[in-house]
Amino acid sequence: MITSEDLSRDPRFDVPSPGRIGTTPLDSLLSNEAAMAPVKTMAKKIYRTVARPHVTFAPTKEPVAYDDRLSLTYMPILRGQIWDGVYDCAWFHVRGKVPASFLSDHLVLHINIGGEGLVYEDGLPVQGISNTRCLVNGLSAAGGKTIIELNRTINGVTLLDPQGSFDFYMDAGYNGVSCIQNIGKAVFRYARICRVDDALRDFYYDYVTVLCLWWNYKEKLEAGQGKSGADDPVKKEEKLLRGLLDESFRLEENGEIHQASQVLQPVLSSDKLPDYKLTAVGHSHLDLAWMWPIRETKRKAARTFANQMANLERYPDYIYGASQPWQYQELKDRYPDFYRRIKDWVEQGRIEPQGALWVEPDTNLPSGESLIRQIHYGKEFYRKEFGKEVTNCWLPDVFGYNGNLPQILAKSDVPYFMTIKLSWNEHNRFPFRTFNWYGIDKSRVLVNMPPDESYNSNGTPISTLHAMDNDPDKSEAKGALYLVGEGDGGGGCSDVHLEMVKREKSLRKTPPVEFGRAEDFFERLSKVRDSLPNYQGELYLEKHQGTYTTQARNKRYNRKIEYALQDLETLATYAWLMGAEYPQEQLDQWWKEVLLYQFHDILPGSGIGRVYKESCERYQIMLDQIRQMQEKLAEEILGKGTKNIAFNPTSFLLDSSKRGVRVFAAPFAFAEAEKIGSQDPSLTVKEERAGARGSFVTMSNQLLTLTFAPDGQILSFKDDKGHEYVKQYFNRLALYPDPKSHYNAWDIDWKYFEKRPVILKAQSTDVICKRSSLIFRAVYLHGRTRIVQDTILTAGSDVVDIKTKAEWHEKLHMLRAEFTPTIDFDKVSCDIQMGTLTRSGRDRTKVEKAQFEICAHKYIDVCDGEYGFSLLNDCKYGHRAKDGFVSLNLLRSPVFPDDTADLGEQQFTYSIYVHEGGLSVETLKRAYQLNKPAYFFRGGHLPQPLLSSTNRDVVIDTIKKAYPPTSLDGQGLTDPDAVVVRLYESQGHSNQTFLKIGFAHGKVYETNLQEEHPVETDPERLSFKPFEIKT
């Protein structure tokens, strides 16, 4: 078993990562004029212009429905004319007539509008086109997705009528010159009616395929990989292929197409093939928002599926795979007849639903419960719509994978996992491509990381040979997945991808490539899983660590609404048990929308500004609605009355003196709040003048004593035994340069901490005395930025809260709160999804240095065995804990892709908790209570507590009513009138608990995380393995 720590010593890991930006072999081929000259010569002859269509357009700022297109004003458009800007839309009206002498030919419309478009016929999507820059389009006979079939039936429609006329409308949009470049203007390029020379087109792709194979050998020779002498196999192969290419092109120039093709057949139909097979999957990875808003994604999905279903008709061996049930649902809602064709292709096995999750979410930031719901809604959709049980987790482009994901997947009947993202490591090469991945609880899933290291593989032999040569596990696995097609902005395979793959089943000395289903691949692979490498722990991506912090408002909303929904479910369960209706339909709507915003280019902060404006507006509306429903449910539970009643939404006993009231409440229980009268006598404050510098302030509540410097830093932090926890400072606010980079919103300079930050110093300080707390208020100014921090010491509390409000107006800077505890720590314990991950607290090895920023949820903790320091937060994720130094990433302000990221008002709270001994559930308790504070309602009576765990290490995280069963094998809960309780062992020990149930009930069953496979159990003796989650 290999862990992250072991990788520091593993020689396979001691290989520099190749990086992601630079020239590829395909780049160099396309830029080689001599090599590309025959390709360009032939391409010009394949599509011959026979007539020009008449094209008019009507520009709009937002999409206009098909039924409203005729209400627009259309105008003619000329070649080179600008028709709109980024994110603008238009309807194009295209009509024309083919000369009678060409009606028996294969006819197409070759059109490039300088944007993306979708052809409609009677309201149904037919074919899509796209201007998105894709490198392999340089080898496409048509230059990319620019062909609309006229006299061939596509998606049930033939555009050309028997008289040779066509007349259609196309919905268009402009989203930039490429996926990551949302710049420029939409420029109409050309539109021409062409006859297709199909024989020349076939030979063209024969030639291009062999050309790419030859180029691979040429690059090897130029890189010095060949041996000296004429017998070198690389030299011999390069010479052979070059000769065949020259001869075949000579014959084509003489018009002898058949003979030219025959020259290349020994290469295209070879029996000299490696014992290694690539299973190609037609792929069109669609970002549900990124460099475009969500509304555009809905249109991209329709274009993509229209194109890929056209490909299914044209290429009988082609299999297209698509993940994210959200996009299927959108297509069903918007285009029901079109969606029925999708279902037909699924039933035939030609479209493969992939990925058991509702969307492709980030897995660092969402809660464990959110990830479980992702799987619930994903599986539910596939079962209901297609009768399919999807067993793979399909996350090609996510920025690292948390250490408890294997358990969440395995206990949801998702045993297979696919990503390519670890190939993006900036510093160290991850040593495996096919392996068993074990989580913190020892659950395992089978992983394939396609060794071409792309979810946009181009289909060329350059790419397939790279996949085979780059696979360290090829001798055991004998193959890998190969994700071919254009992704990010959708689109998928075009002609060049499919024509290449068609010729690679038996291409000389290259791995055979055949289209197949990912599920079938994983089932074959599972038969050899015991011979594969084993890896345990998180899959940490050595890149994109800025996504733990960017777009702080969205991250705060996400944390708040995750817990708000869980708390609402608890209240709804309480009320349902008392006879009220359970609001399942409304909960489903909210959950699905929240899960959408956890998509890996929304929640991480890597989208455009519009994405965050729109999602934040929706978050606030949903939170307001959830609060209203909470109030309604509380009235059902408590009845009418004037008592001030608190609800404790956590698994821990609540003993609090905040908001001027005292609350003592059992777990998941209601209790009356008692008003606090006078100031608590345990609170004391002392000021000591320091001349012009200001005053040193000491505050105490008998449990803790804090001393503040005039500049706002905490200079001393002592417990009730007088132990000092501050080495130099606590809560130093440091402003670091965070310069623009290619992936600005995504990345932080891994050596940022070597730069000298601006240390913010308080411009003013004040002490505010309240009945149950003391507040040290510090105001910081930097340029137009204003930060107000209230450090709150509450009577009877061993936690210090630092409540922060900021008017943030920095650009290309990062704000961090820094701490130097008197603790020499080797390890840092990090709260993750329903568990704790231990990471190195040192900065010595290459692996440790690469993990300069780490992701944690509600807390991190460092300790030396005698004492410990916990840093809690209510909405932050990015941390550094190295060599005695602890830092929390509060805000950053990249300028791309959103140049207003995080500007304006921000608020958040982080807290300090110190303790004797090692990490215990006491830290987790305080972290939960920071994130899930008590609710206050007016009511008349107090019901019995709902549920509790007698062992505090075993935490109740979720209480809800059971979902209606959807499993295909009938193994779901047969009684939907059941209460579901989700618990987890939080401290990494074997443990047992008694689940105390405060309501009348029948039998108790344990299920998987999806409420399936029930087995009767005893709630008085529930046993847990370390970090085990149980339902």
Notes on the structure:
It is a single chain. The protein is of the alpha+beta class. Among the domains are: 32-196, Jelly Rolls; 201-268; 277-543, Glycoside hydrolase 38, N terminal domain (7-stranded beta/alpha barrel); 547-642, Glycoside hydrolase family 38, central domain (Substrate Binding Domain Of Dnak, Chain:A, Domain 2), CATH 1.20.1270; 947-1030, no CATH class. It has a 9-stranded antiparallel sheet with strand order 35-36-37-38-47-44-43-40-41. A 6-stranded mixed sheet has the order 1-23-19-20-18-17. Strands 4-3-6-11-8-9 form a 6-stranded antiparallel sheet, with helices on one face. It is globular and about 100 Å long. 26% of the residues lie in helices and 29% in strands.
The CATH architecture name of the domain at 277-543 reads Alpha-Beta Barrel
The residue-averaged pLDDT reads: 95
Helix content: 25-40%
Secondary-structure-derived class = alpha+beta
| CATH fold-level assignment of the domain at 277-543 | 7-stranded beta/alpha barrel
Strand content: 25-35%
What's the CATH H-level homologous superfamily of the domain at 277-543?
Answer: Glycoside hydrolase 38, N terminal domain
Radius of gyration: 31 Å
Main sheet? 9 strands, antiparallel
